[in-house]
Amino acid sequence: MGRGDDRRRTAQGQRVLGAVRLGAEILPPQLKVDIRSRLQDKIMFGTDHPSIPFDRLFREWDELGYSDDVMSKVFHRNAERILGV
């Protein structure tokens, strides 16, 4: 497993893909495709801030062209669900 491909299970036993800790420009091409579909409920955003500034991170993710629904899941809804908040 490489960076950003850290497979884990939640307390409920759901298999999830660990937080993506990379700048969006270096995400593997297949991961970018899979986030649109089968991984949209299994991935959450994480950051190495201040190593990668927030303005760059958000700009790069916006440039990927994901729907608002997918972006909402990646940036907060999946984390809220998995962490139970």
Quick description:
With 85 residues, the protein is mainly α. It contains three helices and two strands, in the order ββααα.
Keywords:
85 residues, mainly alpha, two-stranded antiparallel ribbon, 3 helices, 2 strands, disordered N terminus
Task: Write structural notes for this entry.
This protein is mainly alpha-helical and 85 residues long. The protein has helices at residues 29-35, 54-63, 68-83, and strands at 7-9, 15-17. Strands 1-2 form a two-stranded antiparallel sheet. The N and C termini lie far apart (28 Å). Residues 36-84 form the Amidohydrolase-related domain. It comes from Naasia aerilata.
Strand order, sheet with most strands: 1-2
How large a portion of the residues is in β-strands, by DSSP E? 5-15%
Count of extended strands: 2
Provide the residue-averaged pLDDT: 79
Radius of gyration: 12 Å
- From the N-terminal CA to the C-terminal CA, the straight-line distance is 28 Å
State the shape: globular
What ranges have pLDDT less than 50 throughout 5 or more consecutive residues? 1-7
Order of helices and strands: EEHHH
Structural class: mainly alpha
Question: What's the tally of helices?
Answer: 3
Number of domain units? 1
* Largest sheet composition: 2 strands, antiparallel
Q: Helical residue percent?
A: 25-40%
